[in-house]
Design a protein that fits this description.
The protein is of the alpha/beta class. The chain has 10 helices and 10 strands. Helices cover 42% and strands 15% of the residues. Strands 3-2-1-4-8-6-9 form a 7-stranded mixed beta sheet, sandwiched between helices. The protein has a 3-stranded mixed beta sheet with strand order 5-10-7. Strand 1, helix 1 and strand 2 (36-42) form a beta-alpha-beta unit. Helix 7 packs parallel to helix 9 and helix 8 (229-239) runs antiparallel to helix 9. The two termini are 37 Å apart.
Amino acid sequence: MRAFPSYVVVTPARNEARFIECTLKSVVAQTVRPLRWVIVSDGSTDGTDEIVARYSAKNPWIELVRMPERSERNFAGKVIAFNAGYARVRELDYQVIVSLDGDISFEPDYFEFLLMRLADDPLLGLTGTPFQELSGQMYDYRFVSVEHVSGACQVFRRECFEAIGGYVPVKGGSIDHIAVISSRMKGWKTRTWTEKASTHHRELGTAERKVLTSRFKYGIKDYVIGNHPLWELFRVARQVALPPVFAGGLALGAGYFWAMLRQIDRPVSRELVVFHREEQMRRLKRFFRLSGASPKSSMSKPSDSCLGPRAAE
C-alpha cells in the first residue's frame, strides 16, 4: 500500500449546527484519516458543541475545544479560533495541516487525493479543490487561476505553513488569499485540482443589494492585499458582464478606489504587495501575448482569482 503523508485538521466553527454533521460524516468516512481533528467551537450557542461531542465520543481522534462567547464578529476571530486548535496539534508528528470549514462535505477519497498530490510534488506547499454550491454553481476555471486555493479547505505542507507564519488575523478578511500569496512568495507552489470538488452547504444571500455590498467590500479587500490598479480595472471589466450586470463591476471598482483614496492601512508587508503585483503583471502580459496569437483568446479575460463567496475570508 502507498504511504501517505500524515495529517492533522483544524476546524474553527461558530454556530454550525445546521451543517457540521455533513462535515463530520465526510471526515469520518475518509479512506485516509487524520491523526487528529480539532474542532474549535468559537462561542457557539446553537448546539454545535453537542453534535461534535457525540462524534468525538465515538472517534477519539476528534477533539472539541470550546472558546468563550465573543460579541465582536470579524474574520480575525476565525484565525484566533484556528490558532487555538493549532496549539493542540503543533507538537504532534505530522507532515500536513488542513484548515477545514465546518459547512462543506466531500467524497471518501478526498484527502487521499490531495495527500497524493503533495507526495508527488515536494515543491507543492498548499493545495485544495474548488467547492460547489448546492445550486451547482462553481468557479469558472477559465477565469480563475488554479494557483488560488479556496479557504473552504486549504491543505498545507507543514513546512510551508510554518514558513508563512500561519494565518494573518485580518479583521476585514482575505486571510485565505494572503496565505496563498505568502506561500508562493516563500517559494512554494500552490494549486487547486479541478478533478474533485467539495460541496458548500450554507445558502448564500442573493438579494441585489447584498450582492452589491459584497462586491464593494471585495474591492476594499483587493486594495488591502495589494492588487495592482491596472489588474483591478480588468477585474472590473470582467465583473460588469456578470449579474448584477454592470452594477456589480461598478461596486467592485468603487470599493477598490474608495479604499485607495482613503489610504486604508494594509495588514500585509510591502514585500508581499510588490510580489503580488509582479505576479499580476506577468499574468497580464501572458494574457496579451495569448490574445495576440489567437483570436479566440481575445474573448477571454485575465484570470480572476478571488471573486466568490470565500473571497470574504
